[in-house]
Amino acid sequence: MTKPHLELTGVEMAFDTPEGSFIALDNINLKIKKGEFVSLIGHSGCGKSTVLNIVAGLLQATKGGCILDGHEINSPGPERAVVFQNHALMPWLTVYENVELAVQQVFRKSMAKQERRDWIHHNLELVNMAHAANKRPGEISGGMAQRVGIARALAMKPSVLLLDEPFGALDALTRAHLQDSLMDIQQELNNTVIMITHDVDEAVLLSDRIIMMTNGPAAVVGEDLYIDLQRPRNRVTLADDPTYVHYRQEVLKFLYEKQRKLESIAPRRDRPAAAETIKKAHG
Amino acid sequence: MSTLTTSGSGAGTSIWLKTQTERLTGARLAQACKQLILPIAGILIFLGFWHLAAPLVNTSLGAFPGPAQVWEQSGQLWQEHIDQRERADKFVTMQEERNARILADNPDASVKIRGYPGAPTFVDQIVTSLITVMAGFLLASAIAVPLGIVLGLNQYLQAATNPLIQIFKPVSPLAWLPLVTMVVSATYVSDDPMFEKSFLTSMITVTLCSLWPTLINTGVGVAAVNPDLLNVSRVLRLSPWTHVRKVVLPSSVPMIFTGLRVSLGIAWMVLIAAEMLAQSPGLGKFVWDEFQNGSSQSLSRIMAAVLTIGFIGFLLDRIMLMIQKKVAWNE
C-alpha cells in the first residue's frame, strides 16, 4: 500500500481549564489520500475545529501527531492554507492586496513580479472576484469576501486546503452558489481538502468522504462514510437520486439517532412561550 | 390607451415631485439649521450673556471685560505685532546699511549682526507655543507608539509596566516641572546651545504628560487584533517584523489615532501651564506677564489669550481628525 498523503495518528488534545484538564479529542486516527475531499461533521463542540487546527498547525496535539508527505506538522504554514469562517481578510487592504500579501510571502523568490501579478488575478478570476479587485472587504458582501478568502488560500498552492465552516456565516442561496463554485474549482485543481461543516447536504454534495465525529468530550471518529457519486454533481438532480438520499440518511442517522445531542433541546424548556408555539404547530 | 396612462401618471408624477422637493427643502433646512444656525445662535447667546454679566463682576483691575473690550484688545494686540514687525524690519535695514558702510570703508572690518532686541509680541508667543507643543507631542508619539506596540505584543511586559503607567499617568505637569527644570539645567550644558533651556523644559514636560494616552491606546489596540488575522499571519509564516508592519500596526491605527488625539489635547493644555510656571516663552508666559502687569487692559488681553488658546486647541484637534480620516481604514 502506498503511503497516505496526510496521516493523523493517535491524536489527543487536552486543554487546561480551571477545573483541570479537559480532553477534547481522544485518539483520532485518519489517513487521507491526495486529491480527496474530506468533510468532518459533528455537533458543535465535538472538536472538529480542533482537528482542523491541529492539521493547520495552529494547535499542537498533546499526544499523537500529524504527518503530511512524510513531514511532521508542528507549526502553521502556507502549504496547509486555511479558509476561516469569517473570511479573515485584512479590512485595510483591498481584495487584490489581501491575495497579494499571501502571494508575496509564499512566492517572493520563485515568481517574478509580473508572474505574481498574473497569479493573483488568475486566482481572483477563479472565484469570480476579479471585478472587485480594488474594493475593500467592508465594501463587498459576506459571500464575496469568503470567495476572496478562498482565492487567498488557493493562491498559496497548498497541498492541503483546510476549510473551517467556510459557508457557515452565509445565507442559504449564497451558500449554495459558493458550494457550486468550490466544486468547480475542486474539479479543476484536484486539491486535497478537509472541510469542517455541520450542514449534512453540504457534506454529501461536496465530499468524497465524510468523517463523522462523536460528541465530546473525548471525541473520536464515529463513522467513516465514502460518498461514491459521479462528478460533476448537480444539487437539483441529486436531490431525488436514491444513492444520494441514502448517504444523506446515513449522516442524519448518525447525528440525530446515534449521537443525539440533548443539550441542544434543553434551552427550549427555559422558553415556555417558544415551547407552546412548537406544540401548537405540531398538533 | 397608452397616452391616457401616460398623462394620468404624468399628473401623479408632478404631484409626487412637488412633495418630494418640498420634503427635500425641508430636510435641507433642518440640516442647515443643525450645522450652521444653531451653533451661531449658541455663540450669540453666550456673547449676550457675557456682555450682560461681565460688568457685574468687579476686580481690583476694574470690571471684568466684556466681549467688546476683548475684541478691542485683540485688535490692539494685532496692531502691536504689526508695529513691532515694522520696527524690526527698520532695525534690520539700518543695521545692514551701517554694515555696508563699514565694509565700504574697510573691507577687512568684522561686522556684527544682531537680532532685533524687542519683546516678543502676542503672535510671536503663539508661534513659539505651537512649535513647543508640536515638538513635545512628536517626541511623546515617537516614544509612545513603538513602546505601546512592544507592550501590546508582550503580555508579560504589559503586566510588568502597567502599575508604572497607571501611577505616572495622572501626574500633573506642575509636579514634573521643577524636576525637569533642574535636570535640564544640570545636564544640558553647552556653550552654543541649539535650544533654549526654557524650550527644552516645557517640551519635556509636555512629552511626559501627553505620552500616556497614546501609549495605553496603542497597547490596547495591538493586543486587540482579531485572532483570525493573527492566525492568517501564522499560516503565512510572516516574519515578526512583517507581522507588525502588515498586520498589527494597520489593525491598531484607529486606536492609535484616538490616543494621539487625546494626547495632543493634553499636550496643549499642559504646555500653557508649563509656560506660565517655567517662564518659558509662549502663550502661557504672555498670560502670566499680563497678570503681573496688572494694567486696566490686562484682563481683556488675558481673555483674548484664553479664547486664542481654545481656538488653537480646537484647530489642532480638527487637523488630527483630518489626518485620521486620511490614514485610518475604518473611517
Question: What does this entry show, briefly?
Answer:
Chain A is of the alpha/beta class and 283 residues long. In chain A, 39% of the residues lie in helices and 23% in strands.
Which percent band covers the strand fraction of chain B? under 5%
Major sheet size, sense and barrel closure of chain A? 6 strands, mixed
Mean pLDDT of chain B: 87
Placed side by side, the strands forming the largest sheet of chain A appear as 6-7-8-3-9-10
Query: How many domains in all of chain B?
Result: 2
CATH top level assignment of the largest domain in chain B: Mainly Alpha
Largest sheet of chain B: 2 strands, antiparallel
Number of domains of chain A: 1
**Helix/strand/pairing category of chain A:** alpha/beta
Strand proportion of chain A, as a percent range, falls in: 15-25%
Helix content of chain B: over 70%
Task: Please characterize this protein's 3D structure.
- The complex is a heterodimer of chains A (283) and B (331).
- By secondary structure, chain A is α/β, with parallel strands linked by helices.
- Chain A is built from ten helices and ten strands.
- In chain A, 39% of the residues lie in helices and 23% in strands.
- In chain A, the strands form two sheets. Chain A has a six-stranded mixed beta sheet with strand order 6-7-8-3-9-10, sandwiched between helices.
- In chain A, helix 2 packs parallel to helix 4 and helix 6 crosses helix 8.
- Residues 264-283 of chain A have low confidence and may be disordered.
- Chain B is an all-alpha fold and 331 residues long.
- Chain B has two domains: 2-56; 122-327, MetI-like (MetI-like fold), CATH 1.10.3720.10.
- In chain B, strands 1-2 form a two-stranded antiparallel sheet.
- The two termini of chain B are 53 Å apart.
- The model of chain B is unreliable at 1-10 (pLDDT under 50).
- The interface between A and B is medium-sized, with 23 and 18 residues.
